[in-house]
Amino acid sequence: MNSPIAVIGGTGRVGRLITERLLDRGEAVRVVGRSVERGRDLPEPAQFFLGDVREPETLRIPLRGCSAIVYTVEPGTDPAGPDSPESTLHTGVRNALTAAFGGTVLPQFVLVSQRYVTRRDHPMNAYGRMLDWRLAGEDAVRLSGLPYTVVRPSWLTDLDGDSRITLEQGDRRDGYVSRQDVAEACVQALYCPSARGVTFEMRSEPGSGPTDWEPLFARLRTDEPALDAGARQLLDPVPDRAIA
């Protein structure tokens, strides 16, 4: 790409893998994170920017002029406050989207979400309503007007990648997927036109990894228009759900 790519959360486990893969492709990478110490350990020539998605003024400079943004932030689990899922998975996403409009070119936006976001009775939703707020963050991306991809990994593992990958939609199944494969999917989404405007779940199965991701993305259906995230009644016991 002709302009830098920002990886928000690029010092985390998935974010670092994404950063390494982009550098291998010769891209200029800006990593946005909260820890200066972790930023020092990034591979060269990645450029580290101290930033916090909960503080929108810290995002304007690192996101300015970027051709793409990958958002892979690991959430807190407090029921409320700065370390709650709401602050990073919804408010943080919206802050990043606002900053993304600060340049002359609209960047592509890849959001790492998770499977189960439409299943409100899943045990993970007990942690600060994590699934509800992830879904609200997804909606914000789908409504933003930016070219986007929403990736919903299954349970994450630290196994080596290069497994057979299944991409699916509907949020009905379970499974596991390596962080290596999630990172590769995010990077591939930046270069495959058929990955734009789609939301999908992914899991690993025994077998060899894909040599060409374009056909995998091409089999996915484009998202229907998302419901307005601002209109969701997240405090209601049965809020509306996105169709993805």
What this model shows, in words?
- Mean pLDDT is 91; it is low at 229-244.
- The protein has helices spanning 13-24, 36-39, 60-63, 85-100, 130-143, 179-191, 214-218; strands spanning 5-8, 29-33, 47-50, 68-71, 108-112, 148-153, 155-157, 164-168, 176-178, 198-205.
- 28% of the residues lie in helices and 19% in strands.
- The protein starts with a strand and ends in a 26-residue tail after the last helix.
- The radius of gyration is 17 Å and the shape is globular.
- It contains 7 helices and 10 strands.
- Helix 1 packs across helix 6 (179-191) and helix 4 (85-100) runs parallel beside helix 5.
- The protein is α/β, with parallel strands linked by helices.
- The chain has an 8-stranded mixed beta sheet with strand order 3-2-1-4-5-6-10-8, sandwiched between helices. Strands 7-9 form a two-stranded parallel sheet.
The gist of it:
With 244 residues, the protein is of the alpha/beta class.
Which structural traits does this protein have?
8-stranded mixed sheet, disordered C terminus, 7 helices, globular, about 240 residues, alpha/beta
Topology:
Elements: E1 5-8, H1 13-24, E2 29-33, H2 36-39, E3 47-50, H3 60-63, E4 68-71, H4 85-100, E5 108-112, H5 130-143, E6 148-153, E7 155-157, E8 164-168, E9 176-178, H6 179-191, E10 198-205, H7 214-218
Parallel strand pairs: 1-2, 1-4, 2-3, 4-5, 5-6, 6-10, 7-9
Antiparallel strand pairs: 8-10
Mean pLDDT: 91
Kindly state the percentage of residues in helix: 25-40%
Q: What pattern of helices and strands is seen along the backbone?
A: EHEHEHEHEHEEEEHEH
Task: Give the low-pLDDT segments.
Answer: 229-244
| Tertiary shape | globular
- Largest sheet composition: 8 strands, mixed
